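User: I'll paste a sequence; please echo it back and then give the predicted structure.

Assistant: Echoing your sequence first, then the prediction.
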Amino acid sequence: MFLHSRHLALAAFVVGSFSLSAAPAWKDAEVVLKAKCYECHNPKKTKGDVDLQQFAADPQLSKHFEVWLKVKDTIENGDMPPPKA
């Protein structure tokens, strides 16, 4: 349950981090993304055809709102991250 709560917090950070005023929240979210997501969702390894690093690297996160919303939904549904992550 605790692990699931952390992932929901990540989802909230990601979706809520679309303005410059939310920069500290984005930094917190990126720490978790690096630990839990980037290993499988990066330019060299795009599981599910998803490269989260390319979206996270864009300074205008709001351009990719739909992607981050899908990330949030996937986390909330318990589909990601996998148990070993």
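The chain has a mean pLDDT of 77. The chain has one domain: 2-75.
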